Amino acid sequence: MKIRESLEKREEEILSPHATLSGRSRGRDREEQPCDLRPCFQRDRDRILYSKSFRRLKDKTQVFLTPDGDHYRTRMTHTLEVSQNARTIARALRLNEDLAEAIALGHDLGHTPFGHAGERALASVCPLGFKHNEQSLRIVEVLEKAGEGLNLTWEVRDGILNHQLSLHPSTPEGQIVRYSDKIAYIYHDMDDAIRGGIVKEDDLPDELAEVIGRTNGEWLDTFIHDIIVTSEDAPEIRMSDEVEAAMKKLREFMFERVYTNPVAKGEENKASTLVRALYEHYCDHPEELPGLQKRMLEEGEELPRCVCDHISSMTDRYAIARYDELYIPKSWAVY
Asked: Which contacts of 288-291 are long-range, i.e. CB under 8 A and separated by 24 or more positions?
């Protein structure tokens, strides 16, 4: 049975000359027997999908903290929408769809509870610093599978680490995810903000609407089409200057009207206080850390990093429950 080999050969025949081919991957840190069915990037995609870190994304904040409504995005639905955008672009450009999807599914594994508020809180108290993209890489390299890591290919790890706009992934598939992430959160954060009554589509400035469209759906269509048309047969993934400038202005509009809006973000100070309190608690009581972190401490890992590993892995719900257990007084009763 040579299914994997036939799939790798098919990639060579049909994908773009700029595509990252599974059969030419730079490999894994630990050598292992190839799968007889799946090329390496598909195998990585499956490992991420079945990981505990991926499952926890369903209870982590995207924008609105622990929302009551059923239709607000979580970090997991954000990740799935990034993956869909990336697959659409990769397929249209004849790039490696498996690699793009694997990077997309893994790019936010290291996000804290309470979204960027939690990330900023950890970064402010940890002397070693904290960035969610670096934590995502740490999860797949070190923390998953009880400290074994997922042993992913170099290309997937590079894309996960470099998915932010200020960074530059080495593969075109990683560059696709870098854009897909921004497109996804602009689209769905606006959709959630409209649902929450924070903004209306009509609030978009006319000069932006003339370039990217008036409705949320038109923005998504414009961004994805522009990337495909601009990047066709090119070695790098990019937007046209006009549309990229419009996207940056739209992000500024979102920061002004949504991301710093006291109605949408009014609970963030409480979330930050909670995260900082948990950090100080575990630094003072390392014996309460989970078994993996205790073992890593014994092996020489620094305490602040182990504490960040534990707190960043928490869901919103678990972090709140742990804070409640530690700091909220309980009623006294005699039975």
From this structure: none
The total number of structural domains that make up the chain? 1
Q: Domain range for residue 170? A: 37-198+310-327
Helix H or strand E segment including 329: none
Residue 1 clears pLDDT 70, i.e. is over it: no
- Give whole-number Cα distances, 161 to 103, 109, 275, in Å: 9, 11, 23
Question: Do residues 250 and 208 touch, judged by C-beta distance below 8 A?
Answer: yes
Contact, 107 vs 177, CB < 8 A? yes
CA distance 85 to 80: 9
221 belongs to a structural domain: no
Q: What is the helix (H) or strand (E) element at residue 22, kind and residue range?
A: none
Looking at the domain assignment, is residue 83 inside a domain?
yes
CA–CA distance, 52 with 72 (Å, rounded to integer): 22
pLDDT, residue 9, reads: 97
* 120, part of any domain: yes
pLDDT digit string (tens) for 296-327?
Answer: 999 999 999 999 999 999 999 999 999 999 99
- What mean pLDDT is predicted for residues 149-175? 96
User: Locate tokens 């309190």: which residue?
Assistant: 277
pLDDT beyond 90 at 30: yes
| pLDDT value at 334 more than 80 | no
Q: What is the Cα–Cα distance from 114 to 121, expressed in whole angstroms?
A: 10
Q: What Rg value do the Cα atoms of the chain yield, rounded? A: 21
Which CATH number characterizes residue 180's domain?
1.10.3210.10
Three-state DSSP class for residue 211:
helix
Amino acid sitting at position 121: A
What average pLDDT is seen over the chain?
A: 93
Give the span between the Cα atoms of 77 and 160, in whole angstroms.
17
pLDDT of residue 67: 62
Dist. CA 150–CA 156, nearest whole Å: 11
